[in-house]
């Protein structure tokens, strides 16, 4: 990494990431802002893949919302069928998925993309997915799955994965302007998932520059051992990258050269067709 690039990272202070409570407090004085609703949504968002069961104290710590308010939010969620408790810890129930399902299943992008995902999956005999960037994660909007399970996380529409170590995430991150990208890299929790994971801002920045130039991305066993994936961008009418399309496969079944020489041409062709339908290039 050259000195100029290193200095550009060093000159950027880590972004201030406000807690949910502080973000809610910023709306104090707005007579139409419902603090109780905002707190309830923050409590729901406190639950994560690895933290499915939380105590009131843990949720309060994560959100900085007072414990009494957290308890009332959880009581309301339980009464409405969105959460449950064993007396000490709390967890969400499947009904919470209905909050996002209507959007995810009806958004024009997901509806438009589904036939293309299905066709790609049929041609390549592998799972094909469409995602957008949501914070530091890729959010799955649509997918055409196969019977073969490739990853330990059970992904479905609405599922999330970290952007920095996934092929779709890198396509979407590469589409950011440099200022936004530097801000992301300074604040991201870059965990080492496997021995291959790129986990420093410098290494990721260099990788994302390459992704920008070539217009596609391959990630080889950085999220999970044995998982390979290739991704391409999808453009909207303004020429902006609005989503990424990927195909996931097992390293023992598809080589890197096959992924690049056989898979990518088909995926790039599908991406052009889908982008054209959306009014993009």
What is the makeup of the main sheet? 6 strands, antiparallel
Q: What does the average pLDDT come to?
A: 86
Sheet-strand content, in percent, reads 15-25%
Strand segment tally: 8
Proportion of helical residues: 40-55%
- Describe the strand arrangement of the main beta sheet, using strand numbers: 5-4-3-8-7-6
Count of helical regions: 11
Write the H/E string, N to C. HHHHHEEHHEEEHHHEEEH
Termini, distance in Å? 33 Å
Oligomer: single chain
Class from helix and strand fractions: alpha+beta
Rounded Rg: 20 Å
Question: Unreliable stretches, pLDDT < 50, 5 or more residues?
Answer: 1-17
User: Globular, elongated, flat, extended or rod-shaped: what is the shape?
Assistant: globular
Structure description:
It is a single chain. The protein is an alpha+beta fold and 281 residues long. It is 45% helix and 17% strand. The protein has eleven helices and eight strands. A six-stranded antiparallel sheet has the order 5-4-3-8-7-6, sandwiched between helices. Strand 7 (227-235) and strand 8 (241-250) form a beta hairpin. The two termini are 33 Å apart.
Topology record:
Elements: H1 3-10, H2 20-25, H3 35-45, H4 56-63, H5 67-79, E1 83-85, E2 90-92, H6 98-106, H7 108-124, E3 127-134, E4 137-144, E5 160-162, H8 167-174, H9 178-187, H10 201-214, E6 217-220, E7 227-235, E8 241-250, H11 256-277
Antiparallel strand pairs: 1-2, 3-4, 3-8, 4-5, 6-7, 7-8
Helix pairs in contact: 3-5, 4-5, 7-11, 8-10
């Amino acid at each position: 990494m050259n000195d100029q690039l290193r200095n550009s990272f060093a000159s950027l202070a880590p972004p201030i990431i406000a807690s949910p409570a502080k973000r809610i407090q910023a709306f104090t004085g707005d007579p139409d802002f419902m603090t109780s609703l905002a707190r309830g949504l923050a409590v729901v968002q406190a639950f994560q893949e690895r933290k499915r069961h939380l105590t009131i104290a843990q949720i309060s710590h994560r959100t900085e919302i007072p414990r009494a308010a957290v308890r009332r939010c959880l009581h309301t969620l339980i009464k409405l069928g969105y959460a449950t408790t064993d007396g000490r810890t709390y967890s969400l129930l499947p009904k919470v998925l209905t909050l996002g399902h209507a959007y995810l299943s009806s958004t024009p992008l997901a509806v438009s993309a589904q036939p293309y995902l299905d066709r790609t999956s049929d041609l390549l005999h592998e799972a094909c997915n469409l995602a957008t960037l949501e914070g530091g994660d890729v959010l799955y909007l649509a997918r055409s799955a196969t019977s073969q399970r490739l990853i330990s996380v059970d992904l479905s529409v609405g599922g999330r994965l970290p952007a920095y170590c996934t092929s779709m995430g890198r396509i979407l991150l590469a589409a950011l302007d440099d200022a936004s990208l530097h801000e992301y890299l300074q604040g991201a929790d870059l965990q080492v998932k496997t021995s291959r994971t790129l986990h420093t801002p410098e290494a990721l920045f260099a990788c994302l520059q390459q992704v920008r130039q070539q217009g596609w991305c391959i990630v080889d066993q950085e999220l999970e051992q044995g998982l390979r994936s290739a991704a391409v961008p999808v453009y909207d009418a303004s020429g902006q990258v609005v989503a990424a399309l990927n195909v996931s496969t097992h390293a023992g079944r598809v080589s890197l050269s096959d992924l690049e020489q056989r898979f990518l041409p088909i995926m790039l062709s599908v991406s052009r067709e889908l982008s054209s339908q959306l009014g993009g290039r």
